[in-house]
Design brief:
Blueprint lengths: L3 E6 L6 H6 L2 E4 L2 E4 L2 E4 L6 H9 L4 E4 L3 H13 L3 E6 L7 H15 L5 E5 L4 H16 L4 H11 L3 E6 L3 H6 L5 H9 L2 E7 L5 E8 L1 H15 L7 E6 L3 H15 L3 E6 L2 H7 L4 E6 L4
Parallel strand pairs: 1-2, 1-6, 6-7, 11-12
Antiparallel strand pairs: 3-4, 3-5, 8-9, 8-13, 9-10, 11-13
Helix pairs in contact: 3-4, 5-6, 9-10
Length: about 290
């Protein structure tokens, strides 16, 4: 058996029960909501947070600092295991940089141990799907370095296509201008965005109306999916399950997908993208 532990962060938006089944440790980011600092998790009463966001309540977020990562990594290396750490995109958070700092400090303290930190360049269940594939490869017997190299070679095939229901959340995060958000809201313009090769959110196109934006996501998968590589596809949503189920139906029809995992967009990401966020993740020819 390979003597290493996979560690990730809550940016993957995977339920704790799934992470436990996959034998993955995770470190939470934080969301500040209603005067409390809460650990980010899709198991944390997420519907209540989205309900608050819909009524105009504010939420802010915090990345993982080096000490937070050390708290998770040190018990692993102290017990004689190496570690593979898969982090939230460096294009969206300082979480990756903090993990690198923590890993270097622990490798000095435990020179016989190795820690490989991989910047997923992914977000939400895109990171979650990459993590799932990593666990599959681990269980097939890949060594720590083999798995880290596989992740580096394949992470840019993990496609992220998404849309949002309210442009004002993207305006607050500086993703669109105030004028664009105002006009877009008046005209029911819905953006189609993706995560690029640097792990940043990029506005690609616009559609008129929600249904058209959901159909555009399915169309992107039909155009770029790797043949025979997407028996399992992930969809996440910002408290809009019916839209997620409609998207799942479309990709089954258009792309022959067999299994779709639908989950929530977590509180940290959802605080920036807003209720009604809908995202599709799959393996493609390119992002």
């Amino acid at each position: 058996m390979n003597n290493y532990q996979i560690i990730t962060d809550s940016g993957c938006d995977m339920p704790r029960s799934v992470l436990e089944k996959l034998n993955v440790r995770y470190v939470p980011l934080y969301v500040n909501f209603r005067g409390q600092t809460l650990e980010d998790s899709v198991d944390m009463g997420i519907k209540d947070i989205y309900a608050g966001l819909r009524t105009g309540e504010a939420a802010s977020t915090s990345a993982i600092n080096p000490e937070g990562w050390k708290t998770a990594m040190e018990p692993v290396v102290a017990a004689g295991q190496d570690a593979l750490v898969l982090t939230f995109s460096s294009g969206l958070s300082t979480t990756y940089q903090s993990a690198v700092i923590a890993a270097r400090e622990l490798e000095e303290a435990y020179p016989e141990r190795k820690i490989r930190v991989v910047d997923s360049l992914c977000a939400s269940l895109g990171q979650g799907l990459l993590l799932y594939y990593a666990c599959q490869k681990r269980d097939l017997g890949l060594s720590l370095d083999e798995l880290a190299d596989w992740l580096e070679d394949n992470k840019l095939h993990l496609c992220h296509w998404f849309t949002v229901d309210d442009l004002m959340y993207l305006k607050r995060g500086g993703r669109v201008s105030a004028a664009t958000a105002l006009v877009g809201t008046m005209l029911q313009i819905k953006p189609v965005l993706h995560v690029d090769d640097e792990g940043h959110l990029i506005n690609v196109s616009k559609t008129r109306g929600r249904k058209a934006s959901i159909q555009a996501l399915a169309g992107k998968m039909a155009e770029t999916a790797l043949p025979g590589e997407n028996d399992l596809v992930y969809i996440c949503h910002g408290d809009c399950l019916e839209d997620a189920e409609y998207l799942a139906q479309l990709i089954r029809e258009k792309c022959g997908v067999r299994e779709v995992f639908i989950g929530y967009t977590g509180a940290v990401i959802g605080s920036h993208s807003g209720p009604g966020t809908l995202a599709l993740f799959y393996l493609g020819t390119n992002r």
